[in-house]
């Protein structure tokens, strides 16, 4: 069942959020006709999908290969610049992560919008305003006015959390918590993928260097 | 067709969101490595949020460190090796 769910994600891999928005329109029509039992099923499926979303090995492998492609692409483009900087790698990794999210979450949209506005800024200054306006229009979340009194400590922490997660400065409490759960799972996957990539690269590099002592060199590698 | 009353909407919405907030907080708590083992009753929402912020900062720092390391490694490896690595990853 796990592979079935991830296949669904891979099928709609074009990177646009149109597929997710069209699929959200249809269940609304169905819910009016069908009883609540189907609602429960859909909720369970959605919950299962969110739990396993960034955890499967397949997701990690897809992310790693996309990251590698993106890194090679960036490297091919910036031949004139001297060397790799950590900041570039970090931005590339974040961008690939946001693309893997397929625009379903707020932080992924904010990351992509910010990287897009950076690129547009180099050519046209006016385009930045247009992108910012677009970002606000794309916002799907409703800001609820909670009548419940919240403790100031909790409120302060919510604001700090909103600053940490990209694009969630003005999100409501509910959206913030949802975004946080997804963001943490995505970051964990990013860390796992980058760590394994670094290990593979360092192992490959160490094998490359001593060509004569091949057997001994491989043993000393770790 | 619609029997909605606009007056009861705000209070109705807050009643729903209370449960949802508690649910999300517990879900968040399950994700955090520090709070996973403790009883969910003893942990307040403020503590969960604090741990969440700390955890996200830690993850950011790890990503920064890893990207520094990757940038150093990528500067010295060849592009031909990247193809080998990709084939290793796809298995």
Automatic annotation (TrEMBL), chain A:
InterPro entries for the chain: bHLH_AtIBH1-like, bHLH_dom, HLH_DNA-bd_sf, IBH1-like, IBH1_N
Alphabetic keyword roster: Nucleus, Transcription, Transcription regulation
Extent of Basic and acidic residues compositional bias: 1-11
Cellular location(s): Nucleus
Main location: nucleus
Every BHLH domain range: 138-187
PROSITE patterns per record: BHLH
Chain spans, region Disordered: 1-42
Organism superkingdom: Eukaryota
Record protein name field: BHLH domain-containing protein
Automatic annotation (TrEMBL), chain B:
Superkingdom to which the source organism belongs: Eukaryota
BHLH domain: residues covered: 5-59
Subcellular location: Nucleus
Broad class of the protein's primary localization: nucleus
InterPro entries: bHLH_dom, HLH_DNA-bd_sf, PRE
Protein name: BHLH domain-containing protein
Record-linked Pfam families: bHLH_ILI
PROSITE patterns in the cross-refs: BHLH
Keywords assigned by UniProt, alphabetized: Growth regulation, Nucleus, Transcription, Transcription regulation
């Amino acid at each position: 069942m796990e592979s079935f769910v991830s296949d669904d994600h891979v099928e709609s891999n074009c990177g646009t959020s149109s597929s997710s928005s069209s699929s959200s329109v249809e269940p609304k029509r169905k819910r009016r006709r069908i009883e609540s039992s189907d609602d429960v099923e859909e909720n369970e499926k959605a919950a299962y999908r969110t739990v396993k979303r960034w955890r499967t090995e397949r997701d990690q492998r897809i992310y790693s290969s996309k990251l590698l492609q993106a890194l090679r692409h960036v490297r091919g483009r910036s031949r004139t610049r001297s060397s790799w900087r950590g900041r570039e790698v970090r931005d590339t990794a974040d961008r690939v992560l946001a693309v893997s999210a397929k625009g379903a979450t707020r932080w992924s949209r904010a990351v992509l919008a910010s990287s897009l506005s950076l690129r547009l800024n180099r050519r046209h200054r006016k385009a930045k305003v247009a992108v910012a306006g677009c970002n606000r229009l794309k916002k799907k979340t409703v800001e609820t006015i909670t009548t419940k009194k919240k403790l100031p400590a909790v409120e302060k922490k919510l604001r700090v959390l909103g600053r940490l997660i990209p694009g969630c400065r003005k999100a409501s409490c509910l959206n913030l918590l949802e975004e946080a759960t997804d963001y943490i799972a995505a970051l964990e996957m990013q860390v796992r993928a980058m760590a394994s990539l670094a290990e593979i690269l360092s192992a490959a590099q160490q094998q490359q260097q001593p060509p004569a002592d091949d057997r001994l060199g491989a043993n000393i590698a770790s | 067709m619609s029997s909605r009353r606009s007056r009861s909407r705000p209070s109705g919405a807050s009643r729903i969101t209370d449960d949802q907030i508690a649910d999300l907080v517990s879900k968040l708590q399950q994700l955090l490595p520090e709070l996973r083992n403790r009883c969910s009753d003893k942990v307040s929402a403020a503590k969960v949020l604090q741990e969440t912020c700390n955890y996200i900062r830690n993850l950011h720092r790890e990503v920064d460190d890893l990207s520094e390391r990757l940038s150093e490694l990528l500067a010295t490896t060849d592009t031909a090796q990247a193809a080998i690595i990709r084939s290793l990853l796809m298995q």
